[in-house]
Amino acid sequence: MLPTLRVTTTRAFPRYVRSIRLNSGPSERDESTYKEAVHILGSGEVAPPPLSQPPPPPTLTARITPAFSKSVFFDVPPADDPLLKFLTTSIMTHGHGSRAAKMTSECLLHIHTLTRAPPLPILREAIDKASPAVRTMNHRNSGKNVMKPRALSERQRTKQGIKWILDASEAKPGMTFPERLARELIAVIQGNSSALTKKLEVHKLAMVNRGGLPSRV
After folding, report:
1. Residue 139 binned pLDDT confidence (cut-offs 50, 70, 90)
2. Is residue 13 in some structural domain?
3. Range of the domain at 163
4. N or C, where is the chain less crowded by C-beta within 10 Å?
5. CA distance 95 to 108
């Protein structure tokens, strides 16, 4: 009977030992690991993760629009404008009318670029300022030369003024002829053009020789 009891006890002992190990509390190794973790973290309680903050409300920013300067609008001169046509004819060489018309258009564009103003009134004023009112003609009377001033018509005045402006534009800086002509027209408006000097000399000569005019009855 004892041998049978010994065999039964030997078979049942490992099963009881396994159940004791499973039901036992934390071991010393587990306690040491827990204490080490608490020492590293500095607190016995694990702090809950911080709640995610709600995103800040969107701020309304005022949309800033750049302050553009007021646009300049001006009337486009007609293609058959008498003054522009006369200027184009004066510029034209060897019968190249389309080339002269293109130069006139580019000249107006340069005037607008340099002044930011309507170009046609500037062109009219410049030609009017450079146009003389009289001219002096040389007459031979009784073996001597007599200078007699003569009044000019509107067409003659305009033609002479354009001629002086074209001659003076050759000395102006610029890569192209339309740019030089535009600078000369602006110089006439400003009062520092050689065309105005020629006009003043002609008027002075006419005043000096005003005695050659026919006397009134």
Report:
1. confident
2. no
3. 82-212
4. C
5. 22
Domain count, the chain: 1
Please report which residue ranges of 138-215 form alpha helices under DSSP H.
154-168, 177-190, 194-208
In a domain, 70, yes or no: no
Residues 6+ apart with CB under 8 A from 118: 72, 74, 75, 112
Q: Which of 83, 84, 102, 114 is nearest to 183 (CA)?
A: 114
**What tokens does 79 get?**
């293609």
27 found inside a domain? no
Residue pointed to by tokens 């004819």: 89
Residues in contact with 109: Cβ distance below 8 Å, sequence separation at least 6, in sequence order:
119, 178
Q: Quick one: which of 181, 177, 165, 178 has its CA closest to 129? A: 165
134 or 143, greater pLDDT: 134
pLDDT in tens, 179-192: 999 999 999 999 99
CATH code of 123's domain:
1.10.455.10
| 25-29-33 Cα angle (round to 5) | 105
Who has greater pLDDT, 35 or 96?
A: 96
* 51: Cα separation from own chain's centroid: 53
- Contact status, residue 195 vs residue 188, Cβ threshold 8 Å: yes
**Which token pair is 146?**
């007599």
